[in-house]
Amino acid sequence: MRAAQEAALEFQYRSRLPVWRQRSVGSGTRGRGPMLKLVDLINSDLITLDLQARTKNKVFEEMVAGMSASAKVLDGTEFARALEERESLATTGIGRGVAFPHARTGSVDGIVIAFARSRKGVDFDALDGEPVHLVFMMGTSPECVEEYLKVLARISRMLRKGSAKERLMEAKTREDVLEIIRKVDEEG
Predict the structure, then answer these.
(1) Whole-number Å distance between alpha carbons of 172 and 161
(2) Least confident range of 12-26, 60-74, 81-95, 137-151
(3) Contact 17/25 with Cβ under 8 angstroms?
(4) CB 188 within 8 A of CB 63
(5) 142 pLDDT band (50/70/90 cuts)?
(6) Strands 111-122 and 47-48, how do they pair?
(7) Domain 38-187 architecture
(8) Residue 26 above 50 pLDDT?
(9) Quick one: which of 1, 95, 100, 179 is 20 to 30 A from 55 by CA?
(10) What's the chain's Rg over C-alpha atoms?
(11) Residues carrying CATH 3.40.930.10, the chain
(12) What is the largest CA-CA distance in the chain?
């Protein structure tokens, strides 16, 4: 009887969580819990295939404006401020044409990720001094510490794969981008 009650309570607890959180809670294998899937955290409305911005600040403005339409971003101005504050600590232009601006802030509910591509490249003060072509922007609420770190690691692993970066540069549609991310998720 006790096991059934515990199972019922666990079901009630999980069913109240957003989908992204349901996957990250639990014992899973080796105590790590089920793997967070990037494709579950990004939707096609937050994908920009022709970023117009040419500077880091303009990238923030353009991407945050799009993300502010998401129900996950509660206050776009505060989110932009949190991104700029995080960027002031160290550049998120990690090199090899990639930037990953991110912030934990109360102006975001859960996790929200946007993707943008610039064919011309953006001066992002990247570590290697090269222009940035691929930008993944992420915001999370303050209580999502574990998920925040897992998503940072997943995107970092994905972007270290040259083939994933090449495919993202060649993607013709938003759906192509989602399919590339889905395949990378499946590869682990």
Answers:
(1) 19
(2) 12-26
(3) yes
(4) no
(5) very high
(6) parallel
(7) 3-Layer(aba) Sandwich (3.40)
(8) no
(9) 179
(10) 17
(11) 38-187
(12) 63
> The whole model's pTM is what?
0.79
Active-site residue, 102 included: yes
pLDDT at 160: 79
Q: What is the mean pLDDT of residues 166-181?
A: 96
pLDDT for the residue 15: 43
147 is written with which tokens? 């998920």
3-class SS letters over 17-73: CCHHHHHHCCCCHHHCCCCCCHHHCCCHHHEECCCCCCEHHHHHHHHHHHHCCCCCE
Active-site residue among 102, 117, 133, 150? 102
Q: What is the mean pLDDT of residues 103-124?
A: 95
Contact 124, 137 (CB under 8 A): no
Structure tokens at 120: 């011309």
Tokens linked to 37 = 């899937």
Work out the angle at residue 46's Cα, subtended by the Cα atoms of residues 60 and 170, and round it to the nearest 5 degrees: 95
Instruction: Describe the chain by its helix, strand, coil percentages, rounded to 5.
Output: 50, 20, 30
